[in-house]
Amino acid sequence: MEINRTRNAIKGTVSGVFLKSVSVIGSFLIQTIIVKVLGKEYAGISSLFTSILSVLSLAELGFGSALVYSMYRPIAEGDIAHLNNLLAYYRRVYNILCGFLLTVGVAILPFIKYFVKEDCPPDLNLYILYLIYLVNSVSAYIPPAYRRSIIYAYQRRDIDNTYTCLVKAAQYLLQILLLLTTKNYYLFALVLAFSNIPVTLLISARTKKDFPDIKPEGMISKSEREVVKNKVAALFGHQLGGKVIISSDSIIISSFLGAGILGIYSNYYYIFYSVIEMLEIIKSSIVAGVGNKIVTSERKELFNLFKRSIYIWMMIVGWASTCLLCMYQPFIELWLGKKYLYPLSILIVIIIYFYTWQFRSVLVVFKDAAGLWTSDWYKPYLGSVINIVGSISLIIYLNSVVGVLIPTIIIMCCIYFPIETHVIYNNLFIGESKVSFYLNVLKYCIINCSGMALSFLLCSVINTSSLLINVIIYFIISSVCAIILFILLTYRTDECRWLIANIKKRLVRSINFVRR
Fold first, then answer.
1. Which of 136, 249, 341, 478 could pair covalently with 322 via S-S, beta carbons 3.0-4.6 A apart?
2. Any residues with CB less than 8 A from the CB of 187 and at least 6 apart, and which?
3. Nearest CA to 365 among 451, 283, 262, 457?
4. Is residue 431 part of a domain?
């Protein structure tokens, strides 16, 4: 069955923009209300439980990604019977996972008190609150949640995005109303606990309507189950690495510095994670298309797509990092006040943390789409150990949130990036030069850093009496400097010329469409 990658990617992008916009605005309003009405300690507790249960979601073990990857070829070949077999296997796995997650989650309950350093709000029962958050995590795996894999494999994330957007909008409105009228954090958390169920039911009904022939029937062969299990074993490590490296930060900060300090950090984390959420729209919209292209396209065509994707992504990440560097402080001050500001030294480390986390993301997209999880199975275990040991050691020595950021920066640059590059080039692009790739990425990084330095210098000499006007001016300066400098210094490359030609082509089409 043929998939229109461009059309589906556009639909996924547009719906993703709406979803992320609702998520960012809703989360922003809720974070503001929690900090202003309840206090920074409540924001810290919220961040802590979200992180703990994010680690618990490892129960999924990567079965979702492995099954979606397995669906690419039968979809391309129109093999509905095989798709039904895969879906039946997926359903059985999800039933087991739902029970497993609930059991492990309850088993952790007695240890919750050790994750908060003495400054928990006195009117909160940590155990009751944790159980409420646990319900939210478990509900993501209730039947028929497995049917989500169908729309992912068919690159129809616009369906998922639309329903999630509607439910989230209702969720945020109800939570805001409860916080403002009752100031009861338990009621706020209860709304979150049951927010996954409506989305699951809506997506299940839609997939039955749009894909009536795809239903869980039969079972995949024993040999194919072994292939899936091998991929899952590798994917578990990758999920472990990602969850531990990112989620352990909040747990370590809360355990060693307290919920109040975590509450201040969570404001900075919320902002740059909101930016990451917007960037994820691009990646999530094309990942299934990349997987389909790997199956159906020539290597040269795929390699050109890879180089162009790296070029565009490095420009986008550089632009986002520049905006964060220049706008963070005035925005935080405008939003919450000066007492919630970090010094410039910590801000710079946060920007480096964001940049090193994101600049390698396209590598992950191609590696995941190709199903190359077993090739670097050891990477997340190595990264997790270094991150935990390094973070605990440095946070004790420095007594600052910087202690949890530096190990992650080192891991992303010195371990993850070179290993992922090696895997991509040794499996997808055999014979192509890795040295050339490293030099290109280094060049892009230098250009990005130059754009950041120039933008920050220009913004530092502009300071009006209005913080809001400052934020707007800094955004314009950051965007112009970052993007124009990047294009000017890469103008002679094939990737830049392709991008400009593509933009011109789309502009001409848009103008012709309007004239009609």
1. 478
2. 178
3. 283
4. no
What tokens were used for 215? 């239903």
pLDDT band at 513 (very low <50, low <70, confident <90, very high): low
The answer to whether position 155 is within a domain reads yes
Cut 0.85: pTM above it: no
Instruction: Report the C-alpha gap between 492 and 502 in whole angstroms.
Output: 15
Q: With the C-alpha atoms ordered 410, 414, 418, 419, is the resulting torsion angle positive or negative?
A: negative
Side chain identity at residue 380, one-letter code = P
Count of domains for the chain: 1
Phi, psi of 144 (to 5 degrees): -105, 55
Q: What is the pLDDT of residue 59?
A: 47
Q: How many CB atoms lie under 10 A from the CB of residue 294?
A: 18
Residue 98 lies in a domain: yes
Selection from 3-17, 23-37, 434-448 with the highest mean pLDDT = 434-448
Query: Which residues neighbour 9 within 8 Å (Cβ) at sequence distance 6 or greater?
Result: 155, 285, 286, 289
Residue 44 lies in a domain: yes
pLDDT digits (tens, 9 = 90+) for 77-90: 788 888 888 888 88
Distance, CA of 182 to CA of 460 (rounded, Å): 43
Chain length of the chain: 516
Measured CA to CA in angstroms, residue 59 lies from 74, 93, 141, 171 at distances of 27, 11, 10, 25
Structural domain range at position 113: 5-296
Q: For 297-322, give one letter per residue: b (16+ CB within 10 A) or e.
A: eeeeebbebbbbbbbbbbbbbbbbbb
